[in-house]
Amino acid sequence: MANTAVTGTIVNESGKPHVGLRVAAVDVESLSKDILLGIAVTDFAGRFRIEYSKWKYSLAGLTDDPDIQLYVGNGYGRVIHRSKVYEDVGEDTIDVGEIVLTDADVSGWLVTNMTGSPTMLSRNFVESLIDNKVAFERVMDLVSSATETVSSIQLYFDVKKLLMTFDQDNFVEGQEVKGKSLEDELLTANRDRNVEVKLLMNDFTGFPYPVDTAGVVEEFFEDADDHTVKVGRFGTGINNALHSKMFIFDSDTALMNASPLIQEYWDDTSHSVDEFRRGSFSYGKNAIRKPVHESSVLLRGPCVTDLSNTFMGLWRYAVEEQINVSPAAAAPDANASVQIARTVPGAILSPGFGEIGILEAYLRAIQQAEQYIYIEDQYITFRPLAGTINHALKQNDSLRVIIVANVAVDAPSYGTWQNNLLRDLYLSCEKEGTSNRLGIYTLWAHDPGPKNRIIPIYIHSKAAVVDDKWATIGSANLDGQGLYQSHHLWWVSKSDQTEERAVEVNAIVYNGVDGQLQSDFPANLRRTLFAEHLGLDPNSNELSLSNSRNWVDLWNSLADAKLGGLSGSPILPFGARILKWVGKSDPEDYLKELGVPEEQLDKIEVMSQVKGFDLKKGKWK
Q1: I need a labelling partner for 606 at 20 to 30 A (CA). Which of 93, 100, 364, 614 fits?
Q2: How far is CA 136 from CA 103, 160, 247, 505, 590, in A?
């Protein structure tokens, strides 16, 4: 006899059956991709039976006895449970018995990482920091006021080439622009106040500056006198970068900066075409060369302990030094319950599969959404997430989805992948009759001066809000590296798969769901982002939650008005910064695709990059 079936039962912690869960049986192959044997749905008693032919596995495998693993999921694409591997199954039907999955693992808003229960941290203070003028200034303030410790994880820190704050808001032609650097402020804290400083830097093994900055950061502090600052190098490959970015101050305050520490990322909410504080550009490290929109977050309270434990685990992995973590107290001005969700490759912080908690957070929120989903992200290339959004729109006639994406991105192949995904998502929704409830947009800066210049704004933000009940800000892009597994992947051994993802950390903020604190944070974040992109007052009634059914229409009307201002005579700079997404990467081709007449484009300077500015010489380049 050959194996041709798997059966079992799935119940909750009280023995109540889980009905309608999808169970997939997979033949685990060591030298090739796993083989899907079949899928079944649990019945009213929680039972499932998966049947298949032996030819499903025997022709592809090295044996007629498959190694079977079960995956349990829901209709929204989230994996709820991975069973152990049942090796060399020879019986015709294998009965795996009763699988117990807690209600918390199966449903609700809170991330459990398939552990059975969430780690929930209440009594936190959360503040969004929109665009890097604010974020960089806040970092410097917190370093200058730290009294005990500053611990930081960074993807990129351009020492000796970055001013975090400036002594002036305008420049004088020919004069050096002066400001403060982070490295000097860290040295001052360490030397003058005996603050313990630890910097953990991403280090792409074998790649020198400017691909990464681990070596130059280490060299800078080695050359500096009279300090005890420690620099750790997190050796990694391109597919599994230490992409998380954060500072932890005195064990009770954290700032998660989504941008690498490069001058190019300096910007404020005006997103001016000419901004001297972006500095000069050089090949290798400056891939954007546009105004940059960003979202960072400040945290105080018990959630900082989770971030400290993350830093401790990564530091121990890279430097082989143990750090003691001091628990953070509840924030006296607490305004939210917060979970820290992570993406982690296998074997770094714990053995086995690693963590995909950020993906779980997104999938849970999309499934729970009743009124709206808002997403703005640098990369949107992870197809399972798009499929979940499509499914959610089909299931709920009241749901609206707004996505803000880049015109073009800075990573090889990502532009094609993103355009294909967004096009396929829209076409799928059009086929299902839901496309009128999906809005996809891009951001543009428009200088109406004598040259009438326009340029895409680069979205580096990784932020989302759902129903004013859930919000996230962090380091994870909506791509394979950030959520599950790198797109850039050709593996030889199956065991490599869990290593091919980045290290990411996001803060998940809740408002009154699943027994958590009431919080204004998700609504305030959404209003702030909408207001910046749409040119509206954050307190406008048009942005009230009760108006969510009209939001896609509102965004479309403002995008049309923006386009009308570019297409008319005279050319008018409309207040909103949005245009509808059309899937063209070249800015001029994009505007042509939208319908801006050729004669109008002759009157507009369509820019693909901004000018650089030499801060030392005080001159445009």
Answers
A1: 614
A2: 42, 16, 11, 19, 32
% of the chain at pLDDT higher than 70 = 98
pLDDT in tens, 285-324: 999 999 999 999 999 999 999 999 999 999 999 999 999 9
Are 620 and 613 contacting, i.e. CB atoms less than 8 angstroms apart?
yes
Residue with tokens 């005990």: 148
Query: What DSSP string runs through 157-212?
Result: B-TTS--SEES-SS--TTS---EE-HHHHHHHHHHHH--EEEEEEEEETT--TTT-
> Per-residue confidence at 492, pLDDT binned at 50, 70, 90?
very low
| Level-2 CATH architecture, domain 358-495+503-606 | 2-Layer Sandwich (3.30)
d(CA 47, CA 419): 41
Angle at 368 between CA 484 and CA 471, to 5 degrees: 65
Q: What is the pLDDT of residue 29?
A: 81
* Angle between helices 521-534 and 551-567 in degrees, nearest 10: 20
* pLDDT for 34: 85
pLDDT digits (tens, 9 = 90+) for 379-414: 999 999 999 999 999 999 999 999 999 999 999 899
User: Which DSSP string corresponds to 95-134?
Assistant: EEEEEE--HHHHSSSS--TTSSS---EEEEEEEEEESHHH
At position 435, the amino acid (one-letter code) is S
Q: Where are the domains of the chain?
A: 5-106, 121-319, 358-495+503-606
CATH number for the domain whose boundaries are 5-106: 2.60.40.10
Among residues 157, 183, 168, the alpha carbon closest in space to that of 277 is found at 168
CATH class label, 121-319: alpha beta
Nearest to 607 by CA among 415, 403, 407, 422: 407
What is the percent of the chain with per-residue pLDDT over 90, rounded to a whole number? 88
pLDDT at 451 over 90: no
Q: Tell me which residue has tokens 């509808």.
A: 580
Torsion of CA 246, 250, 251, 253, to 10 degrees: -60
Residue 310, both tokens: 């993350």
Q: Do domains 121-319 and 358-495+503-606 have the same CATH topology?
A: yes
Band (496; pLDDT cuts 50, 70, 90)? low
Distance CA 162, CA 182 (A): 8
